[in-house]
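Amidohydrolase (Gordonia polyisoprenivorans), 550 aa
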Amino acid sequence: MYASHVFTNAALWRPDDVSGADTLAVADGVIISVGRGVDRALLGPATEVHDLGGASLLPGFVDAHVHPVAGGLAALRCDLSELPHTRRGYLDAIAAYARAHPDEPVISGSGWYGDAFVGGLPTCGDLDEVVADRPVVLSSHDGHGVWVNSEALRRVGIDASTPDPSGGRIERDAHGTPTGILFERAGDPANALIPDYDEAFLRRALLIAQQRLHAAGVTGWQDAGVDIPAFGLSDTLATYLAADAAGELTARVCGALWWAADEGVGQLDTLRERRAQGRGHRFHVDTVKVMQDGICENCTAAMLAPYSDLPAGASPTGLSFIDPAELEQVCALLVRNDFHIHMHAVGDRAVRECLDALGAARSARPGFDARHQIAHLDVVDPADIPRFAQLGVIANIQALWARRDTEIVERKLPLLGPDREPFHFPFGSIRAEGGALAMGSDWPVTDPNPLWAIHTAVHRTGSIADPHAIGDDARTVPLVAGEAITLRAAVDAYTVGSARAMHAEDRAGSLSVGKDADLVVLDEDIRTAVDIGALTATMTMVGGTVVHAI
């Protein structure tokens, strides 16, 4: 058998490799040999030989928590995500978009950061300066807040007399008047103003996102909610299935179905039906996403102790979206029906509630090869850190957040207070206690470049290449330096750890003979790079096919 591709003179990423291997060969979409030097017997007339000159060859990155259709959609709407964090820059971009799209009944988009505004949040008055004649609905970069203008508030009937909905909060001024920021479920009515996107538009968004991810070296991912009610999106299950059937889906994708907290157990039949539908060549659904709280920055993350410097109208200890007793019942029900569970928990109380629920669910189906995971883990109480290993729960981490950005230093840390800061993103402690790590980007919440996240996981500072590492200390002063993890742990979390989280470690995540040829080539050796985030993916391969090259 001749190889289709041979990579040689490569810094191969291999666990505990003492063989000095520097060459890898691919045929029929799989890795057929790993060794030292080129085996001439594998070279045929069509074999492509790539001399990497000592640069790294890694398993393809697997993003364990991402929202690709939302990421692609951002590029097709009013996209603020790539702009400098300034009020004027945002408003000028919104005005320009509105002028260029006079027929859009609602100006929609995403990507704004609160640190661009005095006080940490924009207002409807800001938007009214540039668009007053039609609704404007803009999701924050993290998807947990919606910025609207006065016309949008009027259309949905939100005023000073409107109560906060369950699972959400309307930001108000000192007189109780809504300011134009709607947190969590409070943003649902505004998002409902955005006309539904047709399937062709959603498919275009998916393919834009796929190319962006391939260009970053990502060969597969977990979509953390194919029907998540955020980012102004509707159901995208059909989008994935259509792209897969047409041969357009080149990545390997595991989708998660959304657990609607207000619908209860009656949604189980629908979830089972959708799981059965969600089977394709490169796409499958076997997971349910359960969202237990919000985020610290708007005081909707569920905390064990009250927030410090609590804003007016905020719950002192945040919000648990599902009652803990009900959460245990939900997890047991899902496990009995062979679902893996992907949970959102930011605050330490939410993390504990999720661990409790997953622990109780273990007895619901003994022997189930569960790949349950808890994502985000902004704050974890020290007593709960050993429980990840004890319960076999994967810590699904977004390492890019673990740095001293202005957004964190000015908005988040004052809310947590100094006593909780040491428990902020405790990746190192979870791993030291034997917990398994998977890594994801949460794009479009933050950038999908795995190398930026790996740099931050290792150094707890931002990469020089990342324009969103903003603040005096973001690139120089570590955020809780003791929670850094090694380069080996970080790369493994973004490869084999994430592959395991989506039940694919038997065919992805490592450079092993017989595994799929899902590979990424970097422009340098990652082991000796001064700034990991400054490296570039020069080639990405999925199943032996090159999907990105520069």
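The CA atoms of residues 404 and 473 lie 6 Å apart. The longest strand covers residues 283-291. ok done for today
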